[in-house]
Amino acid sequence: MTRALLPDLPETHPDFIAAWVAEDSQTPARSKSVIGTLAHAVEDVGRARTFSALSEGYRAMMRREFDVIRSDYGTVKITTLRPKHIRADLAKLDPIKGNKRLRAWRLVFANCIERAWLDSDPSAGIKKIAENTTNRAAWTDEDVAAYRARWPIGTSARGCFELLWWTGCRDSDAVKLAWSQIGPDGVLTFRQEKTKGLAYVPWTAPLPSWAASWAGDRATAIEAVRAVAPGGFTMLEAHGGRSRSAKGLSNLISASARAAGIIGKTAHGLRVARLTAIAESGGPTQAIMSWGGHKTLKEAEHYTLTVNRKRQVVRAEQEQNDVKQA
What residues does the Tyr recombinase domain cover (predicted)? Predict the structure, then answer.
């Protein structure tokens, strides 16, 4: 039976057939996978309420991993899987891809345990693979100057760069930032897709004393972003009012950086640079949490600890110079 009321016409009537086909196309196809197989387990976790609660971007990433698991191992019985099988799958991948796959395996197994299909998680004892953190390298003042010299205000490359540089947000959040998120107090407030934490960035609000010297950076950012999308809904709308994708924004920054002679720096490196700058300027850990949208002190303290260690080395060297001069 169909879910909608079909027209009161003979079953051979063209309008009745068209309505039937249209309604039938709305009915989800039943799974043909065998219960107890990985294919069935992957399909089931994709419908789980806990999976639906994850961010849109994370779900899309996990679905890509689920598709590969189902394609490569769909007929395997979940009860036959052992840690050695998971390790063998991960061994074929580079560290970044391998860690994504490991997260997908764990989502599948967690759902299987929830459904009482498994008693334990075969991936539980497998550690995350060490990744190359090049994409986290912070931009230097020289990098910023070189980029600005190559890309003038009015270009998309410059507008996208300045928004990321000032806000310190992730590319997945930058593409969704809207002018309406700037409150009457001049603070740009948005909820992050990855962590669901709120971030607060002073857009036109008075800057705190430790950030007073950044007024020029902020004015440049506002000018550059306005030049890209002066009347758009989002701050980084592409031509024709189209929204940018996070991947497209990331690729644009990387390619534009290379064109400016900047090697190995990415969009995420701008976030690292901004949050590091807060720590170097004397901003408190709470300021890093607010600007970066961190939920815990531990996440933000990474920046202050790194800066404090550097200061300890510099102070020790200065003290030695004082002794020599004495």
Answer: 134-317
pTM over 0.70: no
pLDDT at 244: 86
What is the model's pLDDT at position 314?
57
pLDDT for residue 2 = 40
- pLDDT tier for residue 300 given thresholds of 50, 70 and 90: confident
- In Å, how far are 55, 113, 125, 275, 300 from 98, measured between CA atoms? 20, 22, 15, 28, 26
Helix axes 38-46, 56-73, angle to 10 degrees: 170
For residues 109, 110, 114, 116, the Cα torsion angle rounded to the nearest 10 degrees is: 30
Burial of residue 104, with CB atoms counted within 10 A of its CB: 0-12 exposed, 13-18 middle, 19 or more buried = buried
DSSP 141-190: HHHHHHHHHHS-BTBHHHHHHHHHHHH---HHHHTT-BGGGB-TTSEEEE
Q: Is residue 164 within 8 Å of residue 267, measured between CB atoms?
A: yes
Closest CA to 84 of 123, 127, 129, 37: 123
Residue 320's SS3 state is: helix
Per residue in 35-49, pLDDT tens? 999 999 999 999 999
CA distance 276 to 292: 10
The CA-to-CA distance between both ends of the chain, in Å, stands at 95
Of 52-56, 183-187, 222-226, 261-265, the least confident? 52-56
Q: Which percentage of the chain shows pLDDT scores above 70?
A: 81
Between CA 126 and CA 161 the distance in angstroms is 38
- Measured in degrees and rounded to the nearest 5, phi and psi for residue 190 equal -150, 155
Q: Could you give the CA distance from residue 59 to residue 52 in angstroms, rounded to a whole number? A: 8
Asked if 135 and 93 touch (Cβ cutoff 8 Å), the reply is no
